[in-house]
Amino acid sequence: MRFAGRNAARAATAAILAAAAAGCAPAGRVAERPAHRVVSLAPSITELLFAIGAGDRVVGRTTWCDYPPEALSIASVGDGLHPNVEAIVARRPDLVLFYTSSSNAAALERLRALGVATDTIRMDRLADVVTGARRFGRLTGTARRADSLAAAFAAALDSARAVPVPGPRVRVVLLAWDAPPVVIGGGGFQHELVTLAGVDNVFGDLARASGQVSIETIAARDPDLVVLLGETAPEPAWAARPEWQVVRAVRERRFVRLTGSEFARPTFRALAAVRDLRAAIGEARR
Amino acid sequence: MRRWTALGALAIAVLATAIVVGPAGLAPGDVLRGLVGRGDPTTIAIVRDLRVPRAVLAFLVGGSLAVTGAVLQALVRNPLADPYLLGLSGGAGLGAVLAIALGLGGAWAVPAAAAVGALAAIALVYRLAVVAGAVLDTRVLLLGGVVVGAFAAALMGAVLALSPAEDLRSALLWLLGGFDTASWRTLGIFAAYAAAPLVLLYRASRPLDLLSLGEEPARFLGADVEPLKRLLYVAASLLTAAAVAVAGIIGFVGLVIPHAIRLLWGHTHRTLLPAAFVLGGALLCAADAVARTAFAPLTLPVGVVTAVLGVPVFAILVRRWSA
Questions:
Q1: Helix orientation angle between B109-129 and B225-247, rounded to the nearest 10 degrees
Q2: Predicted complex ipTM
Q3: What is the largest CA-CA distance in chain B?
Q4: Residue A278's domain is classified under what CATH number?
Q5: For B23, which of A81, A216, A222 is closest by C-beta distance?
Q6: Which has the closest alpha carbon to B300: A218, B308, B46, B93?
Q7: What is the model's pLDDT at position A14?
Q8: Torsions phi, psi of B161, nearest 5?
Q9: What range defines the domain where residue A115 resides?
Protein backbone atom coordinates (compact mmCIF):
# COMPACT_ATOMS: atom_id res chain seq x y z
CA MET A 1 0.00 0.00 0.00
CA ARG A 2 2.84 2.29 0.92
CA PHE A 3 4.68 1.67 -2.35
CA ALA A 4 1.51 2.11 -4.35
CA GLY A 5 1.00 5.43 -2.58
CA ARG A 6 4.49 6.59 -3.42
CA ASN A 7 4.05 5.67 -7.10
CA ALA A 8 0.69 7.39 -7.20
CA ALA A 9 2.25 10.53 -5.72
CA ARG A 10 5.01 10.41 -8.31
CA ALA A 11 2.49 9.95 -11.13
CA ALA A 12 0.42 12.84 -9.79
CA THR A 13 3.47 15.10 -9.68
CA ALA A 14 4.37 14.15 -13.25
CA ALA A 15 0.81 14.82 -14.34
CA ILE A 16 0.78 18.23 -12.63
CA LEU A 17 4.08 19.17 -14.28
CA ALA A 18 2.80 18.00 -17.64
CA ALA A 19 -0.42 19.95 -17.16
CA ALA A 20 1.55 23.05 -16.22
CA ALA A 21 3.69 22.65 -19.33
CA ALA A 22 0.57 22.19 -21.44
CA GLY A 23 -0.88 25.34 -19.91
CA CYS A 24 2.19 27.40 -20.88
CA ALA A 25 2.33 26.19 -24.48
CA PRO A 26 -0.01 27.60 -27.13
CA ALA A 27 -3.32 25.75 -27.30
CA GLY A 28 -1.80 22.81 -29.17
CA ARG A 29 -0.36 22.42 -32.61
CA VAL A 30 -3.33 23.04 -34.82
CA ALA A 31 -3.39 22.03 -38.47
CA GLU A 32 -3.91 24.81 -40.98
CA ARG A 33 -6.15 22.77 -43.25
CA PRO A 34 -9.48 21.50 -41.88
CA ALA A 35 -9.06 18.18 -40.10
CA HIS A 36 -10.49 15.12 -41.86
CA ARG A 37 -9.65 12.39 -39.37
CA VAL A 38 -10.56 13.43 -35.82
CA VAL A 39 -10.21 11.35 -32.67
CA SER A 40 -12.42 12.62 -29.82
CA LEU A 41 -11.48 11.73 -26.25
CA ALA A 42 -14.65 12.84 -24.46
CA PRO A 43 -18.36 12.05 -24.97
CA SER A 44 -19.23 15.76 -24.85
CA ILE A 45 -16.72 16.48 -27.64
CA THR A 46 -17.98 13.61 -29.82
CA GLU A 47 -21.57 14.78 -29.45
CA LEU A 48 -20.59 18.35 -30.29
CA LEU A 49 -18.71 17.26 -33.43
CA PHE A 50 -21.79 15.42 -34.67
CA ALA A 51 -24.00 18.41 -33.85
CA ILE A 52 -21.90 20.81 -35.93
CA GLY A 53 -21.92 18.44 -38.91
CA ALA A 54 -18.40 17.05 -38.47
CA GLY A 55 -19.57 13.58 -37.39
CA ASP A 56 -18.36 11.97 -40.63
CA ARG A 57 -14.82 13.10 -39.79
CA VAL A 58 -14.70 11.36 -36.41
CA VAL A 59 -12.55 8.23 -36.75
CA GLY A 60 -12.07 7.44 -33.05
CA ARG A 61 -14.12 7.83 -29.88
CA THR A 62 -14.06 6.74 -26.22
CA THR A 63 -15.92 3.81 -24.71
CA TRP A 64 -18.40 6.26 -23.18
CA CYS A 65 -19.34 8.13 -26.42
CA ASP A 66 -22.92 6.87 -26.90
CA TYR A 67 -24.66 9.90 -28.42
CA PRO A 68 -25.78 10.33 -31.13
CA PRO A 69 -26.34 6.59 -31.79
CA GLU A 70 -24.30 6.89 -35.05
CA ALA A 71 -21.25 7.47 -32.85
CA LEU A 72 -21.39 3.86 -31.70
CA SER A 73 -20.32 2.65 -35.17
CA ILE A 74 -17.00 4.52 -34.85
CA ALA A 75 -13.98 2.61 -33.57
CA SER A 76 -13.36 3.08 -29.84
CA VAL A 77 -9.84 3.97 -28.68
CA GLY A 78 -10.62 3.19 -25.04
CA ASP A 79 -11.05 5.30 -21.95
CA GLY A 80 -10.62 9.01 -22.64
CA LEU A 81 -9.16 9.78 -19.23
CA HIS A 82 -6.27 7.34 -19.58
CA PRO A 83 -5.88 7.29 -23.36
CA ASN A 84 -4.08 4.50 -25.14
CA VAL A 85 -1.70 6.43 -27.45
CA GLU A 86 -1.09 3.44 -29.71
CA ALA A 87 -4.81 2.89 -30.30
CA ILE A 88 -5.20 6.59 -31.12
CA VAL A 89 -2.26 6.66 -33.56
CA ALA A 90 -3.58 3.51 -35.24
CA ARG A 91 -6.62 5.53 -36.34
CA ARG A 92 -4.18 7.82 -38.31
CA PRO A 93 -5.77 11.04 -36.97
CA ASP A 94 -4.91 14.54 -38.17
CA LEU A 95 -6.50 16.02 -35.04
CA VAL A 96 -7.00 14.65 -31.51
CA LEU A 97 -9.36 16.49 -29.16
CA PHE A 98 -8.79 16.14 -25.40
CA TYR A 99 -10.84 17.02 -22.37
CA THR A 100 -8.38 19.10 -20.27
CA SER A 101 -7.29 16.88 -17.38
CA SER A 102 -4.11 15.96 -15.55
CA SER A 103 -4.86 12.28 -16.10
CA ASN A 104 -4.42 12.50 -19.88
CA ALA A 105 -1.63 15.12 -19.95
CA ALA A 106 1.08 12.51 -20.55
CA ALA A 107 -0.77 11.08 -23.58
CA LEU A 108 -1.22 14.62 -24.92
CA GLU A 109 2.54 15.19 -24.72
CA ARG A 110 3.27 11.92 -26.47
CA LEU A 111 0.93 12.73 -29.36
CA ARG A 112 2.44 16.20 -29.74
CA ALA A 113 5.91 14.67 -29.80
CA LEU A 114 4.68 12.33 -32.57
CA GLY A 115 3.60 15.39 -34.57
CA VAL A 116 -0.16 14.87 -34.29
CA ALA A 117 -2.26 18.05 -34.06
CA THR A 118 -4.11 18.30 -30.76
CA ASP A 119 -6.44 20.61 -28.90
CA THR A 120 -7.74 20.51 -25.34
CA ILE A 121 -10.95 21.94 -23.94
CA ARG A 122 -12.83 21.85 -20.66
CA MET A 123 -16.48 20.95 -21.12
CA ASP A 124 -17.89 21.69 -17.66
CA ARG A 125 -20.42 24.49 -18.14
CA LEU A 126 -23.13 25.19 -20.69
CA ALA A 127 -21.08 28.17 -21.99
CA ASP A 128 -18.32 25.66 -22.88
CA VAL A 129 -20.69 24.15 -25.47
CA VAL A 130 -20.78 27.52 -27.25
CA THR A 131 -17.00 28.00 -27.08
CA GLY A 132 -16.38 24.39 -28.13
CA ALA A 133 -18.73 24.53 -31.10
CA ARG A 134 -17.03 27.67 -32.45
CA ARG A 135 -13.55 26.23 -31.97
CA PHE A 136 -14.30 22.81 -33.43
CA GLY A 137 -16.13 24.46 -36.34
CA ARG A 138 -12.92 26.24 -37.35
CA LEU A 139 -10.78 23.13 -36.85
CA THR A 140 -13.00 20.90 -38.98
CA GLY A 141 -14.05 23.41 -41.65
CA THR A 142 -17.69 23.51 -40.53
CA ALA A 143 -17.49 27.01 -39.08
CA ARG A 144 -20.67 28.37 -40.68
CA ARG A 145 -22.99 25.75 -39.29
CA ALA A 146 -21.11 25.61 -35.95
CA ASP A 147 -21.21 29.38 -35.46
CA SER A 148 -24.91 29.67 -36.24
CA LEU A 149 -25.76 26.76 -33.90
CA ALA A 150 -23.59 28.31 -31.18
CA ALA A 151 -25.24 31.70 -31.57
CA ALA A 152 -28.75 30.19 -31.50
CA PHE A 153 -27.93 28.11 -28.39
CA ALA A 154 -26.38 31.10 -26.59
CA ALA A 155 -29.46 33.22 -27.38
CA ALA A 156 -31.84 30.46 -26.22
CA LEU A 157 -29.87 30.11 -22.96
CA ASP A 158 -30.00 33.86 -22.35
CA SER A 159 -33.74 34.06 -22.89
CA ALA A 160 -34.34 30.96 -20.74
CA ARG A 161 -32.34 32.61 -17.94
CA ALA A 162 -34.27 35.85 -18.31
CA VAL A 163 -37.72 34.27 -17.92
CA PRO A 164 -38.58 33.45 -14.29
CA VAL A 165 -40.23 30.06 -13.72
CA PRO A 166 -43.70 30.50 -12.16
CA GLY A 167 -44.83 28.76 -8.98
CA PRO A 168 -43.16 28.08 -5.62
CA ARG A 169 -39.42 27.29 -5.65
CA VAL A 170 -38.62 23.63 -5.16
CA ARG A 171 -35.38 22.89 -3.26
CA VAL A 172 -33.37 19.84 -4.31
CA VAL A 173 -30.13 18.07 -3.56
CA LEU A 174 -28.34 16.54 -6.57
CA LEU A 175 -26.75 13.36 -5.35
CA ALA A 176 -23.95 11.74 -7.35
CA TRP A 177 -23.01 9.07 -4.76
CA ASP A 178 -24.26 7.87 -1.39
CA ALA A 179 -21.30 6.55 0.67
CA PRO A 180 -19.62 8.92 1.17
CA PRO A 181 -22.34 11.32 0.01
CA VAL A 182 -21.16 13.34 -3.01
CA VAL A 183 -23.36 16.24 -4.11
CA ILE A 184 -23.35 18.53 -7.14
CA GLY A 185 -22.30 22.08 -6.23
CA GLY A 186 -22.74 25.37 -8.04
CA GLY A 187 -19.70 24.93 -10.31
CA GLY A 188 -21.06 22.41 -12.80
CA PHE A 189 -23.53 22.37 -15.68
CA GLN A 190 -26.00 20.19 -13.74
CA HIS A 191 -26.43 23.10 -11.36
CA GLU A 192 -27.14 25.31 -14.39
CA LEU A 193 -29.75 22.80 -15.63
CA VAL A 194 -31.67 22.77 -12.34
CA THR A 195 -31.43 26.57 -12.03
CA LEU A 196 -32.86 26.94 -15.55
CA ALA A 197 -35.64 24.56 -14.54
CA GLY A 198 -36.55 27.01 -11.75
CA VAL A 199 -35.28 24.78 -8.97
CA ASP A 200 -32.92 25.67 -6.09
CA ASN A 201 -29.86 23.47 -5.56
CA VAL A 202 -29.36 23.42 -1.78
CA PHE A 203 -25.61 23.04 -2.37
CA GLY A 204 -25.44 25.82 -4.96
CA ASP A 205 -23.16 27.72 -2.56
CA LEU A 206 -20.33 25.22 -3.17
CA ALA A 207 -18.17 26.85 -5.83
CA ARG A 208 -16.98 23.49 -7.19
CA ALA A 209 -18.73 21.06 -9.56
CA SER A 210 -19.14 18.42 -6.84
CA GLY A 211 -18.08 17.76 -3.27
CA GLN A 212 -18.16 15.22 -0.47
CA VAL A 213 -20.54 16.26 2.34
CA SER A 214 -22.10 14.54 5.35
CA ILE A 215 -25.67 13.30 5.68
CA GLU A 216 -26.09 15.74 8.58
CA THR A 217 -25.58 18.72 6.24
CA ILE A 218 -28.11 17.35 3.76
CA ALA A 219 -30.62 16.82 6.61
CA ALA A 220 -30.05 20.35 7.93
CA ARG A 221 -30.54 21.92 4.48
CA ASP A 222 -33.74 19.86 4.19
CA PRO A 223 -34.32 19.62 0.40
CA ASP A 224 -37.82 18.81 -0.91
CA LEU A 225 -36.49 16.27 -3.42
CA VAL A 226 -33.42 14.14 -4.01
CA VAL A 227 -32.27 14.24 -7.63
CA LEU A 228 -30.31 11.09 -8.44
CA LEU A 229 -27.70 11.19 -11.17
CA GLY A 230 -26.98 8.02 -13.12
CA GLU A 231 -29.14 5.85 -10.83
CA THR A 232 -31.10 3.27 -12.78
CA ALA A 233 -33.10 1.50 -10.06
CA PRO A 234 -36.49 3.15 -9.35
CA GLU A 235 -35.55 3.45 -5.69
CA PRO A 236 -31.89 3.39 -4.64
CA ALA A 237 -30.85 0.55 -2.33
CA TRP A 238 -29.24 2.90 0.18
CA ALA A 239 -32.57 4.65 0.76
CA ALA A 240 -33.43 1.79 3.11
CA ARG A 241 -30.40 2.43 5.33
CA PRO A 242 -31.24 3.85 8.77
CA GLU A 243 -28.82 6.80 8.69
CA TRP A 244 -30.51 8.22 5.58
CA GLN A 245 -33.96 8.33 7.26
CA VAL A 246 -32.86 11.57 8.94
CA VAL A 247 -33.21 13.31 5.56
CA ARG A 248 -36.91 14.13 5.09
CA ALA A 249 -36.91 13.75 1.28
CA VAL A 250 -35.36 10.28 1.61
CA ARG A 251 -37.78 9.28 4.38
CA GLU A 252 -40.68 10.34 2.15
CA ARG A 253 -39.02 8.63 -0.84
CA ARG A 254 -39.11 11.77 -2.97
CA PHE A 255 -36.65 10.87 -5.72
CA VAL A 256 -36.17 12.14 -9.26
CA ARG A 257 -33.89 10.04 -11.45
CA LEU A 258 -31.92 11.66 -14.25
CA THR A 259 -30.62 8.84 -16.40
CA GLY A 260 -30.24 10.34 -19.89
CA SER A 261 -26.79 11.25 -21.19
CA GLU A 262 -27.96 14.88 -21.57
CA PHE A 263 -27.72 15.08 -17.75
CA ALA A 264 -24.23 13.58 -17.73
CA ARG A 265 -22.48 16.13 -20.00
CA PRO A 266 -23.06 19.67 -21.26
CA THR A 267 -24.61 19.53 -24.76
CA PHE A 268 -26.88 21.37 -27.18
CA ARG A 269 -29.63 19.15 -25.71
CA ALA A 270 -29.48 21.13 -22.46
CA LEU A 271 -32.71 23.06 -23.05
CA ALA A 272 -34.64 19.85 -23.82
CA ALA A 273 -33.06 18.43 -20.64
CA VAL A 274 -34.37 21.43 -18.68
CA ARG A 275 -37.91 20.80 -20.00
CA ASP A 276 -37.71 17.11 -19.02
CA LEU A 277 -36.32 18.03 -15.62
CA ARG A 278 -39.17 20.48 -14.99
CA ALA A 279 -41.72 17.80 -15.92
CA ALA A 280 -40.04 15.17 -13.73
CA ILE A 281 -39.92 17.50 -10.76
CA GLY A 282 -43.54 18.53 -11.24
CA GLU A 283 -44.45 14.82 -11.28
CA ALA A 284 -42.48 14.10 -8.10
CA ARG A 285 -44.02 17.06 -6.27
CA ARG A 286 -47.53 15.77 -6.83
CA MET B 1 -4.86 5.60 38.96
CA ARG B 2 -4.27 9.20 37.86
CA ARG B 3 -3.55 7.94 34.35
CA TRP B 4 -6.88 6.15 34.10
CA THR B 5 -8.74 9.19 35.38
CA ALA B 6 -6.99 11.33 32.77
CA LEU B 7 -7.76 8.84 29.98
CA GLY B 8 -11.39 8.55 31.10
CA ALA B 9 -11.75 12.33 31.16
CA LEU B 10 -10.20 12.57 27.70
CA ALA B 11 -12.62 9.97 26.34
CA ILE B 12 -15.67 11.74 27.79
CA ALA B 13 -14.49 15.16 26.60
CA VAL B 14 -13.86 13.91 23.06
CA LEU B 15 -17.19 12.06 22.83
CA ALA B 16 -19.09 15.10 24.14
CA THR B 17 -17.31 17.46 21.72
CA ALA B 18 -17.95 15.11 18.80
CA ILE B 19 -21.67 15.19 19.58
CA VAL B 20 -21.84 18.97 20.07
CA VAL B 21 -19.95 19.99 16.92
CA GLY B 22 -21.08 19.24 13.37
CA PRO B 23 -21.56 20.76 9.94
CA ALA B 24 -25.23 21.61 10.63
CA GLY B 25 -24.01 24.33 13.03
CA LEU B 26 -26.50 23.60 15.83
CA ALA B 27 -26.18 25.65 19.03
CA PRO B 28 -24.92 23.60 22.03
CA GLY B 29 -28.21 24.27 23.85
CA ASP B 30 -30.20 22.86 20.92
CA VAL B 31 -27.95 19.79 20.84
CA LEU B 32 -28.62 19.14 24.56
CA ARG B 33 -32.37 19.59 24.06
CA GLY B 34 -32.22 17.32 20.99
CA LEU B 35 -30.38 14.71 23.04
CA VAL B 36 -33.26 14.48 25.51
CA GLY B 37 -35.80 14.53 22.66
CA ARG B 38 -37.01 18.12 22.82
CA GLY B 39 -37.18 20.80 20.13
CA ASP B 40 -37.16 20.65 16.35
CA PRO B 41 -37.61 17.06 14.97
CA THR B 42 -34.75 17.49 12.45
CA THR B 43 -32.39 18.60 15.23
CA ILE B 44 -33.45 15.63 17.38
CA ALA B 45 -32.84 13.27 14.45
CA ILE B 46 -29.45 14.81 13.62
CA VAL B 47 -28.26 14.55 17.23
CA ARG B 48 -29.78 11.21 18.19
CA ASP B 49 -29.63 9.25 14.94
CA LEU B 50 -26.52 10.68 13.27
CA ARG B 51 -24.11 12.29 15.73
CA VAL B 52 -24.39 9.97 18.75
CA PRO B 53 -24.05 6.65 16.89
CA ARG B 54 -21.33 8.14 14.66
CA ALA B 55 -19.23 9.40 17.59
CA VAL B 56 -19.58 6.14 19.54
CA LEU B 57 -18.86 4.01 16.44
CA ALA B 58 -15.75 6.06 15.62
CA PHE B 59 -14.59 5.59 19.23
CA LEU B 60 -15.15 1.81 19.20
CA VAL B 61 -13.50 1.36 15.79
CA GLY B 62 -10.49 3.50 16.80
CA GLY B 63 -10.12 1.55 20.03
CA SER B 64 -10.40 -1.80 18.26
CA LEU B 65 -7.82 -0.85 15.64
CA ALA B 66 -5.36 0.29 18.33
CA VAL B 67 -5.80 -2.95 20.30
CA THR B 68 -5.39 -5.02 17.14
CA GLY B 69 -2.22 -3.13 16.24
CA ALA B 70 -0.76 -3.68 19.72
CA VAL B 71 -1.51 -7.41 19.59
CA LEU B 72 -0.13 -7.94 16.09
CA GLN B 73 3.06 -6.01 16.90
CA ALA B 74 3.64 -8.41 19.81
CA LEU B 75 2.62 -11.47 17.80
CA VAL B 76 4.93 -10.94 14.82
CA ARG B 77 7.46 -8.98 16.95
CA ASN B 78 7.64 -6.24 14.36
CA PRO B 79 7.09 -2.57 15.29
CA LEU B 80 5.71 -1.84 11.78
CA ALA B 81 2.83 -4.29 12.14
CA ASP B 82 -0.61 -2.70 11.87
CA PRO B 83 -4.12 -4.15 11.59
CA TYR B 84 -4.02 -4.14 7.79
CA LEU B 85 -0.56 -5.59 7.41
CA LEU B 86 -1.77 -9.16 7.15
CA GLY B 87 -3.51 -8.77 3.79
CA LEU B 88 -6.76 -7.43 5.23
CA SER B 89 -6.85 -4.07 3.50
CA GLY B 90 -6.22 -5.67 0.12
CA GLY B 91 -8.88 -8.33 0.65
CA ALA B 92 -11.46 -5.88 1.96
CA GLY B 93 -10.71 -3.35 -0.76
CA LEU B 94 -11.06 -5.97 -3.48
CA GLY B 95 -14.39 -7.11 -2.05
CA ALA B 96 -15.73 -3.56 -1.89
CA VAL B 97 -14.50 -2.56 -5.33
CA LEU B 98 -15.97 -5.73 -6.87
CA ALA B 99 -19.34 -5.00 -5.25
CA ILE B 100 -19.29 -1.42 -6.60
CA ALA B 101 -18.05 -2.43 -10.07
CA LEU B 102 -20.59 -5.25 -10.42
CA GLY B 103 -23.33 -2.92 -9.18
CA LEU B 104 -24.44 -5.40 -6.50
CA GLY B 105 -27.77 -4.26 -5.12
CA GLY B 106 -28.91 -4.07 -1.52
CA ALA B 107 -28.26 -1.50 1.15
CA TRP B 108 -25.46 -3.50 2.77
CA ALA B 109 -23.75 -4.95 -0.32
CA VAL B 110 -20.50 -2.97 -0.10
CA PRO B 111 -19.72 -3.48 3.62
CA ALA B 112 -20.74 -7.13 3.40
CA ALA B 113 -18.48 -7.66 0.37
CA ALA B 114 -15.61 -5.92 2.19
CA ALA B 115 -16.05 -8.21 5.19
CA VAL B 116 -16.13 -11.29 2.93
CA GLY B 117 -12.98 -10.09 1.11
CA ALA B 118 -11.19 -9.51 4.43
CA LEU B 119 -12.18 -12.94 5.74
CA ALA B 120 -11.00 -14.58 2.51
CA ALA B 121 -7.63 -12.83 2.85
CA ILE B 122 -7.36 -13.92 6.50
CA ALA B 123 -8.13 -17.53 5.57
CA LEU B 124 -5.59 -17.49 2.75
CA VAL B 125 -2.81 -15.95 4.85
CA TYR B 126 -3.55 -18.36 7.71
CA ARG B 127 -3.39 -21.31 5.33
CA LEU B 128 -0.01 -20.11 4.01
CA ALA B 129 1.43 -19.64 7.50
CA VAL B 130 0.33 -22.91 9.10
CA VAL B 131 3.07 -25.46 8.54
CA ALA B 132 2.96 -29.15 9.43
CA GLY B 133 -0.69 -28.91 10.37
CA ALA B 134 -0.33 -27.00 13.61
CA VAL B 135 2.59 -24.59 13.85
CA LEU B 136 1.83 -20.97 12.93
CA ASP B 137 5.06 -19.49 11.60
CA THR B 138 4.88 -15.74 12.32
CA ARG B 139 7.54 -14.88 9.75
CA VAL B 140 5.51 -16.62 7.04
CA LEU B 141 2.43 -14.92 8.45
CA LEU B 142 4.04 -11.54 7.87
CA LEU B 143 5.27 -12.40 4.36
CA GLY B 144 2.01 -14.16 3.48
CA GLY B 145 0.08 -11.08 4.60
CA VAL B 146 2.18 -8.80 2.45
CA VAL B 147 1.94 -10.95 -0.69
CA VAL B 148 -1.80 -11.67 -0.33
CA GLY B 149 -2.33 -7.93 0.21
CA ALA B 150 -0.28 -7.09 -2.87
CA PHE B 151 -2.11 -9.67 -4.96
CA ALA B 152 -5.52 -8.36 -3.90
CA ALA B 153 -4.38 -4.77 -4.52
CA ALA B 154 -3.29 -5.74 -8.04
CA LEU B 155 -6.66 -7.35 -8.81
CA MET B 156 -8.34 -4.26 -7.36
CA GLY B 157 -6.25 -2.07 -9.67
CA ALA B 158 -7.39 -4.15 -12.64
CA VAL B 159 -11.06 -3.85 -11.68
CA LEU B 160 -10.71 -0.10 -11.17
CA ALA B 161 -8.92 0.37 -14.51
CA LEU B 162 -11.75 -1.41 -16.33
CA SER B 163 -14.61 0.37 -14.50
CA PRO B 164 -16.40 3.56 -15.56
CA ALA B 165 -14.78 6.73 -14.20
CA GLU B 166 -17.68 7.55 -11.87
CA ASP B 167 -17.65 4.16 -10.14
CA LEU B 168 -13.89 4.32 -9.87
CA ARG B 169 -13.97 7.60 -8.00
CA SER B 170 -16.67 6.38 -5.66
CA ALA B 171 -14.83 3.15 -4.93
CA LEU B 172 -11.66 5.08 -4.12
CA LEU B 173 -13.61 7.36 -1.78
CA TRP B 174 -15.00 4.32 0.01
CA LEU B 175 -11.51 2.87 0.39
CA LEU B 176 -10.31 6.03 2.15
CA GLY B 177 -12.60 5.14 5.02
CA GLY B 178 -15.13 7.10 7.03
CA PHE B 179 -18.22 6.97 9.19
CA ASP B 180 -20.85 8.18 6.75
CA THR B 181 -22.76 4.93 7.09
CA ALA B 182 -22.87 5.11 10.90
CA SER B 183 -26.27 4.41 12.47
CA TRP B 184 -27.56 2.66 15.58
CA ARG B 185 -27.78 -0.50 13.52
CA THR B 186 -24.13 -0.44 12.32
CA LEU B 187 -23.07 0.50 15.85
CA GLY B 188 -25.05 -2.42 17.29
CA ILE B 189 -23.63 -4.88 14.78
CA PHE B 190 -20.07 -3.71 15.36
CA ALA B 191 -20.37 -3.65 19.16
CA ALA B 192 -21.89 -7.14 19.25
CA TYR B 193 -19.21 -8.45 16.93
CA ALA B 194 -16.21 -6.73 18.55
CA ALA B 195 -17.00 -7.60 22.18
CA ALA B 196 -15.81 -11.23 22.08
CA PRO B 197 -12.45 -10.63 20.30
CA LEU B 198 -11.73 -7.65 22.59
CA VAL B 199 -12.36 -9.70 25.75
CA LEU B 200 -10.31 -12.63 24.39
CA LEU B 201 -7.39 -10.36 23.54
CA TYR B 202 -7.49 -8.65 26.95
CA ARG B 203 -7.51 -12.01 28.71
CA ALA B 204 -4.40 -12.95 26.74
CA SER B 205 -2.48 -9.95 28.19
CA ARG B 206 -0.12 -11.96 30.36
CA PRO B 207 0.81 -14.58 27.71
CA LEU B 208 1.25 -11.65 25.27
CA ASP B 209 3.90 -10.19 27.61
CA LEU B 210 5.72 -13.52 27.45
CA LEU B 211 5.29 -13.83 23.70
CA SER B 212 6.83 -10.41 23.09
CA LEU B 213 10.06 -11.81 24.64
CA GLY B 214 10.22 -14.38 21.84
CA GLU B 215 8.60 -17.76 21.25
CA GLU B 216 11.33 -19.84 22.92
CA PRO B 217 11.47 -17.79 26.16
CA ALA B 218 7.66 -17.74 26.24
CA ARG B 219 7.57 -21.52 25.98
CA PHE B 220 10.13 -21.88 28.82
CA LEU B 221 8.10 -19.51 30.96
CA GLY B 222 5.08 -21.75 30.59
CA ALA B 223 3.01 -20.20 27.77
CA ASP B 224 1.14 -22.56 25.48
CA VAL B 225 2.57 -20.80 22.44
CA GLU B 226 0.92 -22.43 19.40
CA PRO B 227 -2.75 -22.20 20.49
CA LEU B 228 -2.01 -18.68 21.79
CA LYS B 229 -0.66 -17.48 18.43
CA ARG B 230 -3.63 -18.91 16.56
CA LEU B 231 -6.08 -17.32 18.99
CA LEU B 232 -4.37 -13.92 18.76
CA TYR B 233 -4.22 -13.99 14.99
CA VAL B 234 -7.82 -15.04 14.46
CA ALA B 235 -9.28 -12.67 17.09
CA ALA B 236 -7.25 -9.67 15.85
CA SER B 237 -8.11 -10.36 12.21
CA LEU B 238 -11.83 -10.78 12.83
CA LEU B 239 -11.84 -7.53 14.78
CA THR B 240 -10.16 -5.70 11.89
CA ALA B 241 -12.55 -7.26 9.37
CA ALA B 242 -15.49 -5.89 11.38
CA ALA B 243 -13.87 -2.45 11.50
CA VAL B 244 -13.30 -2.49 7.73
CA ALA B 245 -16.91 -3.46 7.08
CA VAL B 246 -18.32 -0.47 9.00
CA ALA B 247 -15.66 2.16 8.30
CA GLY B 248 -13.46 1.21 5.33
CA ILE B 249 -9.69 1.33 5.70
CA ILE B 250 -8.39 3.80 8.28
CA GLY B 251 -4.63 3.75 8.65
CA PHE B 252 -2.29 5.14 11.28
CA VAL B 253 -4.37 4.53 14.46
CA GLY B 254 -3.47 0.86 14.73
CA LEU B 255 0.19 1.48 13.94
CA VAL B 256 1.00 4.45 16.13
CA ILE B 257 -1.30 4.41 19.19
CA PRO B 258 0.27 1.22 20.66
CA HIS B 259 3.75 2.76 20.30
CA ALA B 260 2.58 5.99 21.94
CA ILE B 261 1.23 4.05 24.95
CA ARG B 262 4.43 1.98 25.18
CA LEU B 263 6.50 5.17 25.20
CA LEU B 264 4.31 6.74 27.87
CA TRP B 265 3.48 3.81 30.14
CA GLY B 266 5.62 0.82 29.25
CA HIS B 267 5.11 -2.55 27.66
CA THR B 268 2.81 -4.49 30.02
CA HIS B 269 -0.17 -5.63 27.95
CA ARG B 270 -2.60 -5.51 30.87
CA THR B 271 -2.15 -1.71 30.80
CA LEU B 272 -1.22 -1.34 27.16
CA LEU B 273 -4.36 -2.89 25.67
CA PRO B 274 -7.03 -0.92 27.58
CA ALA B 275 -5.03 2.32 27.36
CA ALA B 276 -4.54 1.83 23.61
CA PHE B 277 -8.29 1.19 23.29
CA VAL B 278 -9.20 4.48 24.98
CA LEU B 279 -6.53 6.59 23.28
CA GLY B 280 -7.21 5.04 19.83
CA GLY B 281 -10.93 5.61 20.32
CA ALA B 282 -10.41 9.22 21.39
CA LEU B 283 -8.09 9.94 18.46
CA LEU B 284 -10.42 8.50 15.82
CA CYS B 285 -13.51 10.12 17.34
CA ALA B 286 -11.74 13.51 17.45
CA ALA B 287 -10.42 13.05 13.92
CA ASP B 288 -13.92 12.31 12.64
CA ALA B 289 -15.26 15.46 14.34
CA VAL B 290 -12.54 17.50 12.62
CA ALA B 291 -13.21 15.76 9.28
CA ARG B 292 -16.89 16.69 9.49
CA THR B 293 -16.44 20.31 10.53
CA ALA B 294 -13.08 21.76 9.42
CA PHE B 295 -14.18 22.57 5.86
CA ALA B 296 -17.96 22.31 6.34
CA PRO B 297 -20.09 21.69 4.37
CA LEU B 298 -17.34 19.69 2.63
CA THR B 299 -15.95 16.70 4.51
CA LEU B 300 -12.44 15.25 4.59
CA PRO B 301 -11.54 11.55 4.59
CA VAL B 302 -11.04 10.68 8.27
CA GLY B 303 -7.75 8.86 7.57
CA VAL B 304 -6.26 12.14 6.38
CA VAL B 305 -7.16 13.79 9.70
CA THR B 306 -5.88 10.94 11.91
CA ALA B 307 -2.48 11.24 10.26
CA VAL B 308 -2.39 15.05 10.33
CA LEU B 309 -3.36 15.14 14.03
CA GLY B 310 -1.40 12.09 15.12
CA VAL B 311 1.94 12.34 13.33
CA PRO B 312 3.17 15.56 15.04
CA VAL B 313 2.18 14.25 18.49
CA PHE B 314 3.90 10.97 17.80
CA ALA B 315 7.03 12.72 16.49
CA ILE B 316 7.27 14.74 19.73
CA LEU B 317 6.86 11.56 21.78
CA VAL B 318 9.62 9.78 19.85
CA ARG B 319 11.93 12.78 20.25
CA ARG B 320 11.38 12.98 23.98
CA TRP B 321 11.83 9.25 24.38
CA SER B 322 15.08 9.07 22.41
CA ALA B 323 16.55 12.27 23.93
A1: 160
A2: 0.82
A3: 65
A4: 3.40.50.1980
A5: A216
A6: B308
A7: 41
A8: -65, -30
A9: 20-160
